[in-house]
Amino acid sequence: MKHQSEKNMGQLKSRKHLNADALFNRLHKDFSKVSDCREGDIDISMADALMSGFAVFSLKDPSLLAFDKRRETDGNLEKIYHIENVPCDTQMRTILDEANPEEIRSAYKNIFKELQRGKALEPMVFFQGCYLVSLDGTGHFSSKKLFSDGCLKKVSKKTGEITYYQQMLGAAIVHPDFKEVIPLAPEPIIKQDGQTKNDCERNAAKRFFGKLREDHPHLPLIITEDALSSNAPHIREAEKYNLHYILGVKNGDHPFLFSRVEEAQNRGGTTQFELVDKNDPDKIHRFLFVNQVPLNKSNQDLLTNFLEYWEITPEKTQHFSWVTDFTITTGNAFELMRGGRARWKVENETFNTLKNQGYHFGHNYGLGKKNLSTVFVMLMMLAFLVDQTQQICCPLFRRAWHKMGSKRELWDRMRSLFRDFAFKSMRMLYEALIFGIKFQPPIILYDSA
């Protein structure tokens, strides 16, 4: 199936506010509003430092040192990224360590608004007018030597050795039919101010839900997560913020729920049916569901709806189960199943992309004493958001990507051209990738002395 973004390529040409140049300009304006606690004469503004950090991930530079080599020769940073004074790697770390990650959230919100304004999100509506948001936690820093006040601690029971680490709760709008995802501002899982205990994914989810509703108070959303999230406090928190849910459950973690489902099945209180896959006659979709069952023994007042699913092929059988607040019917069970299975997209299309397609997720660009590591993660995810927006909305980006054959080759060629030629815009760089550049002798800059 062709993605909607491919079908509407001609229509998307008019979305000038959703190309790289417009988005970079938008980001610079947002970064200009981030607080700067430094006093006295300031050579490099907070906006320039943030935009430089963003450019590291936008250009997919493997290190700050690699980015630092652009400072003396690369006027493209000023023309394309609007950076008046480019900091060296040490200056960048020092300035960004003081930046408040919460103030970067508005950049995500404003790009999201541009996507809504351009109606680019409409094809990603998943079920009953709602968008599907996949959440999961992941680590982005770990060391046995380096640590900061925000680091969590893990002590080995055998050796007593301490590992310092930081994590984040990542979230993205996903759809089973789309490879593209729309990442939302991640929530750091780090030691909170005034706290002595480790932060955890559950607490991060509480903060994330509140901020999500602050940024998008009326956006209809369904959250999908793994079995660790299928607990009463988490579900009640989701309901508090008017969030629908499709959450994984496992027999080993939810024995009371599965025993109640078995009891219902024995008395004929469940619905079971099978479908032959419309594209593969050898694939069978088998469903079992029951509505209004208690989640667990200690929260029997919390009733939820249970869906069990088997994908059966001659080679293997896969088994999944979920709970949801949607009343399950034979008419919607298939779509709810697809929503539950789409949870993997935050891992496959988001975290794995960041790790394996040039963003260098997990590489230590700098821990800092305060906020540096978190700020870098926020900027990396912003670069990913801009790239995903272009992939959906910018035919020129897609054409350059197609011409290069892979994202990795695209990033390599972009960095090469960016280093060796002067460009007025990212559009001009994409056109150079698509149409080529005339091969000619270089202009030698002889030393006047």
What topology does this entry show?
Elements: H1 4-7, H2 9-12, H3 20-31, H4 46-58, H5 64-68, H6 76-81, H7 89-97, H8 105-117, E1 131-143, E2 152-155, E3 162-174, E4 182-183, E5 187-189, H9 201-215, E6 221-225, H10 232-240, E7 244-248, H11 255-266, E8 271-276, E9 284-294, E10 303-312, E11 317-324, H12 333-341, H13 345-356, H14 372-393, H15 395-404, H16 407-420, H17 426-435
Parallel strand pairs: 1-6, 6-7
Antiparallel strand pairs: 1-3, 2-3, 3-4, 3-5, 7-11, 8-9, 9-10, 10-11
Helix pairs in contact: 3-4, 3-8, 4-7, 4-14, 7-14, 8-14, 15-16, 15-17, 16-17
Overall description:
Helix content is 40%, strand content 18%. Strands 1, 2, 3, 4, 5, 6, 7, 8, 9, 10 and 11 form an eleven-stranded mixed sheet that branches. It is globular. The protein is of the alpha+beta class. The N terminus is likely disordered. Strand 6, helix 10 and strand 7 form a beta-alpha-beta unit.
The largest sheet, given as strand count, sense and whether it forms a barrel, is: 11 strands, mixed
Cα gyration radius (Å): 24 Å
How many beta-strand elements? 11
Q: Helicity range of the residues?
A: 25-40%
Task: Spell the H/E element sequence.
Answer: HHHHHHHHEEEEEHEHEHEEEEHHHHHH
Strand content: 15-25%
Distance between the termini: 63 Å
Overall structural class, as computed from helix and strand content, comes to alpha+beta
User: Roughly what is the average pLDDT, rounded to an integer?
Assistant: 92
**Can you tell me the residue ranges where pLDDT is under 50 for at least 5 consecutive residues?**
1-14
